[in-house]
Amino acid sequence: MITVTEALDALFALVSPLATEDVPLRHANGRVLARDVAAQRTQPPFAASSMDGYAVKAAEVEADALFKVIGESAAGHRWDGVVGAGQAVRIFTGAPVPQGADFVVIQEDTIRRGDLITLGRNVGSKDNIRAAGVDFTKGTPLSAPRLLTPADIALLASMNIADVPVVRRPVVSLISTGDELVMPGEAPGPDQIIASNTFGLAAMLEDLGAHPRILPIAADTEGSLRAAFDLAKGSDLVITVGGASVGDHDLVAPVAAEMGMEQSFYKVAMRPGKPLMAGRLSGMPMVGLPGNPVSAMVCGSVFIAPLVRAMQGLPKTAAPRQKMTLAAPLTANGPREHYMRGTTTAQGVISADLQDSSLLSVLSTSDVLIVRPAGDPARAIGDVVETIAI
Ligand SMILES: Nc1nc2c(c(=O)[nH]1)N[C@H]1C(S)=C(S)[C@@H](COP(=O)(O)OP(=O)(O)OC[C@H]3O[C@@H](n4cnc5c(N)ncnc54)[C@H](O)[C@@H]3O)O[C@H]1N2
Ligand code: MOO
């Protein structure tokens, strides 16, 4: 069996970044910026007031100073004159600071009578002016590759970039296998259960910027599985769930092999997720996930998420890990890396009592995977462990 790191490297070797497309800014959130873009303008484009008040000459600012108000500068409507000695311009937040002025006294520090203002005694030295270009100047780049966040979308809008070059969404076909499975909403027979894995994985893939397609469930026959693989043709990635182990009805590996799959690996020294397989089938990268629901989702976090990020041009790196303090002890780990479901509390992280790989209710109340290296000794409260957010 290979290690998780070796398996991830083998998976990365199967993919390269997809093509680029331009999308409207409104559709760019969560996508990966494909090439550097440059600000189309300077922001702010003029020296702007950061407060409502009066624009004056800084050299004249002192307690009880008197000014004559000669005009008004509002956001979107500048005052075009030049501020002279003893003069002030009424100004509002976001408005251009008029020529001749280099200080804004906030209105709370003034007393106004008709056209005259008198400054108070605590005006201070803050000029309340945002210099032109203090946020960014024309040509400032936003560098690719970059997973675009809501803050990036606001920045791109401010840079006047209406269409954004992003990496195409990977089309990922998801195939559940097994006679025992029916789709959610269908009436299961007495020995049947509902297919959950493809739905959980599709949700995960959507969050990763991919375009998942849930294909019809493949029955435990060679013909049905072949038909499902045929439907997946043209995808950027095909993922099967179940049928990966050693049972008589576990057909994924033999059928894929007959269809010409070049296998990269089969079986990884991890728990859950041991019967993971990967390779290339009909020109597509293919990953065979174990059927146990928690195994499939853990493999989604550990393997599929980094893989889909790499397909979108992000660095080929493992799922990010955070160090956390244990708030409950852990028993010694065995020879496989263990990805334990856990919950973070104010005191630290606690592993779930039940770690069976069928328990979606436990996964759903967990917010981290506690990563236990192979052979990790027993751990005590206060020890530091590595975790992956889920
Ligand atoms: N003799 C051995 N038996 C098993 C081994 C082993 O090494 N030797 N490995 C175990 C481990 S670990 C896992 S994980 C499972 C994986 O088996 P498969 O990938 O072949 O999965 P299935 O047998 O098809 O299903 C396992 C389990 O999960 C349910 N399932 C499958 N697909 C779905 C789905 N889409 N949605 C919800 N639930 C699903 C299925 O009904 C089974 O209950 O093998 C162990 N056995
Ligand atoms: O590896 Mo299985 O995925 O432990 O349940």
UniProtKB/TrEMBL annotation:
GO BP terms in the entry: Mo-molybdopterin cofactor biosynthetic process
EC number: 2.10.1.1
Cofactor: Mg(2+)
InterPro entries: MoaB/Mog-like_dom_sf (IPR036425), MoaB/Mog_dom (IPR001453), MoeA-like (IPR038987), MoeA_C_domain_IV (IPR005111), MoeA_C_domain_IV_sf (IPR036688), MoeA_linker/N (IPR005110), MoeA_linker/N_sf (IPR036135)
SMART domains: MoCF_biosynth
CDD domains according to UniProt: MoeA
Family: Belongs to the MoeA family.
Function: Catalyzes the insertion of molybdate into adenylated molybdopterin with the concomitant release of AMP.
Protein name (database record): Molybdopterin molybdenumtransferase
Gene designation per UniProt: moeA_2
